[in-house]
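To illustrate this point, what follows is a protein record of this kind.

___
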Amino acid sequence: MALRVEKSLLEGPHLVVEAGTGTGKTLAYMYPSLRYSLLTGKRIIISTGTKGLQEQLFYKDVPFLESLLGPFDICYMKGRSNYLCRQKLYDIKPASLTPDENREYKVLVNWEKKTETGDRAEIPAFPEKSTLWPRVDARTDACIGKECASFERCFVSEMRSRAESSNLVIINHHLFFTDLAIKMKTEDASILPAAHAVVFDEAHELEHVASDCFGISVSNRRIGDLARDIRQAIVGTARANAIVQAAARMVDRFALLCTGLPGKVEPSRVVFGSRSKFLQEYDETYEGVLSSMKYLHLELSNLEDLEGAESLVSRTSQLYGELRYLLESKEENAVFWVERRLAGPGAQMNVFIQATPIDVAETLSSSIFERYNSVVLASATLAVQNGFSHVRRSLGITEADEMIVPSIFDYQKQALLYVPPDMPDPRDPSFFESAKKQVLELLKISKGRAFCLFTSYELMQKMHAALEGELPYPMLLHGTMTRKELLESFRTSKNAVLFGTSSFWQGIDVQGEQLSCVIIDRLPFSVPSDPILQARVKAIETRGGSGFFDYQVPKATIALKQGFGRLIRSTTDRGILAMLDPRIQHPGYGKMFTESLPPYRVTNEIEDLRTFMSGCAA
């Protein structure tokens, strides 16, 4: 794999590679990338799926490579919201803070004097859901650039300078595509430096992240944040009262507009398909929102001596333009939808009006695969039925070499795949009770030490409630603490069972007998009512393809491979994989799943599991 990566960097074409768990794919792309950069002086961007993997590369793999090749220049970049804005911190009025925020404020004030990076990760004890941090981070919408009194000491500016002089720049996908979206509008606004090549690890996530970053969203939360920042900025100015009232009017009118949006007043995602009819019915309310924004824009534009006024003017203008796009655009390659999301337990409902591109292939083809000399896509889960046609289609890849590097693990000896006999279809009302019996029996056999992974948050909670107290094992539930805390508790609690949803299907590494069983409730098909899925399926079928076989099954196959990939993480790991969904053996599409999975031994007999586990440490 390292030789193929080097060939791609030297000669092209692009490279798509699936490298199974345990193959050492990280070093297989890092080593040739670094060698190439040191020899040619050309910069390479390494983009990963998560901040956790970024940290692994920077703090573990980079020091190892330096021990072989000597020191080199490397930059580790995250999105702007991860960094402190010094000026925002200086401008905070402690009297306006809650007691919790005041405690956090004191921590930040002390840390700001010592930190060299401004990266929030340096203070791990800082609350994950801090309400103060969003008011002091360096995100773009409130940045005033060179007008800022602290610009010369800005953490983001310093990060950019380091990147410009680095051989490798390690980032995450969200930052790459957010920057690309900005670059497509204004080249000079980009924060990533030019590079010869880009390597995407965890490349199976690219379509989703790109769609998210290229989309547009206007919400009551975003409008409320603007109104709050306006109130704080204009204190003491001549027109303060009038502007505050105008900002409050904008908030109220947008809230009134939201009451007419489609969907129930509960967490949901629904297609916003009748926008023209909605505008006819709510024309007066909509015009009221727009007029309040225009008035704010005019008033803020006249505040020439107010520091930060230019940023507030720009944010108001952007909201105005994006709201008009969301309600009036005739764009065919976009799905318009509404999402309602709780801000937290017992918190208010946030409402988002959104537009997401249906197909990102053409955009990615022109902005990535035609722009960079070499692009390497790597993942443990990219191929479907030993081919890359799905990823090629969805990402717009035309010319590329392909490679599959098999895992070093002996799956025939290390794992047993169990598909229970006579399970009802997951859509059948009797499925839950049957699944409950199977999970209970499986956890007894494995003595806990299991991940129970669900495609539905509701089903996860229901199963956890049904089994809690049935077994003498710690039953950990996703959502009751942070993911990091849950994993630490799982690792340190004997015979623990962790009930989790989507974020526990990938990027989790628990080695050893502590994790000896992974149970998956059903094939991870996307929710049929999801607006983006519906739009993509319709687009594929309009072109004469099959939305189910060309899109839904390949996506679910890759997700299933990710879930099963949690179990075997080393050559000494052993355990049970259980799939409770009988559709994996469907005569029509089941083989697309089974032929894409590693070569596990498969059984329908519960006694086989007992025999197998008797050979594992208890």
